[in-house]
Amino acid sequence: MKQNEYSLTSLVAAFSRSYHSRNDTPKIFDDILAKDLISEEEYKNISENMIKGIQFFNKEMGEKLYEKPKEILKWVTQIQLSPTPLSRSAFCENVLLHEMNLGVKQYVILGAGLDTFCFRHPELENVLEIFEIDHPATQEFKKKRLEIAQFNILSNLHFVPMDFTHTFSHQFLVNEGFNNKAKTFFSLLGVSYYLTKEEIERLINNLFAHLPEGSSIVIDYADENLFKEKGMFNRVENMLYMASVSGEPMKSCFSFREIESMLEKSGLLIYEHLTPTAINESYFSNRTDYLSAFETIHYIHAVKK
Q1: What's the CA gap between 276 and 292, in Å, rounded?
Q2: 158-197 burial by CB neighbour count: b if 16+ within 10 A, else e?
Q3: What pLDDT, in 10s, does the model give residues 107-116?
Q4: Which of 53, 105, 231, 267 has the most CB atoms at less than 10 Å from its CB?
Q5: What is the pLDDT of residues 208-246, one digit of tens each?
Q6: 171: CB partners within 8 A, 6+ apart
């Protein structure tokens, strides 16, 4: 990300969650508040850009769905935009709620973007401390949207402006009330692709250096086929191109052994690993629309020993 620019990917991810909540059945992940953080003009503009971009995404589908703009938008959103943001959020929040039963008291969202977890779960105000970490420009953008939407900022939500992709600071968290002795759950979603392997390893090591056993993380990552796999309707190739032209190029991918070894160096053991096939079975089976798990993308829940 460039200085003083909010993340375009966070806006598009919020659009995809909003579209799903408004239009799709059955729901994979129902973010009923995402629509409140995107203006109607932005929603309309993103929709129009996706419809106009059908020739880029797939010329054959553009010809087949000619003069059916709503179907084109559905196709582009469900094929290209929605699968990963929806399924990784569903996986992450299911794991988090389970970990809370095992004593987790703090939730740190790295690269929070326009996340709405805190506002969808006001009942957790006195149960779970939530720390949203993001680039200062993106966080200021979100704060303005929360103000416009008249969302009530609950006492357990803490904003921590930080470019953690370069330097992670526990002190910034502590300054906002973070407790290094409390069992903590991290989410690192939609971030790992944009960092080098060295940056990811350094970040995870820093995250868990001072935390107790049982603290854990959910992370999504791209496997070793990221830069070789075209994907259904070339959607993996399209993803790489769109990330590049938006100024946030994808940089890293891992074999399972590589990411397992990296996590072990930080004292973490993989508790659950979902491959694209497993993600498809868990979140996309028996659907009659275009939604399906994205090729090359995996989810992991890793726990500190």
Answers
A1: 9
A2: bbbebebbeebeeebbeeeebeeeebbbbbbbbbbbbbee
A3: 999 999 999 9
A4: 231
A5: 999 999 999 999 999 999 999 999 999 999 999 988 988
A6: none
Fold classification of 83-304 (topology level): Rossmann fold (3.40.50)
225: number of Cβ within 10 Å = 15
Q: Is 85 left (phi over 0), alpha (psi -120 to 50) or beta?
A: alpha
pTM, two decimals, is 0.95
The per-residue DSSP string of 217-229 comes to EEEEEEBTTTTT-
Nearest to 81 by CA among 128, 124, 43, 111: 43
Classify the C-alpha dihedral 256-251-303-92 as positive or negative: negative
pLDDT band at 8 (very low <50, low <70, confident <90, very high): confident
DSSP at 77: I
In percent, how much of the chain has pLDDT > 70? 98
The distance in angstroms from the start CA to the end CA of the chain is 34
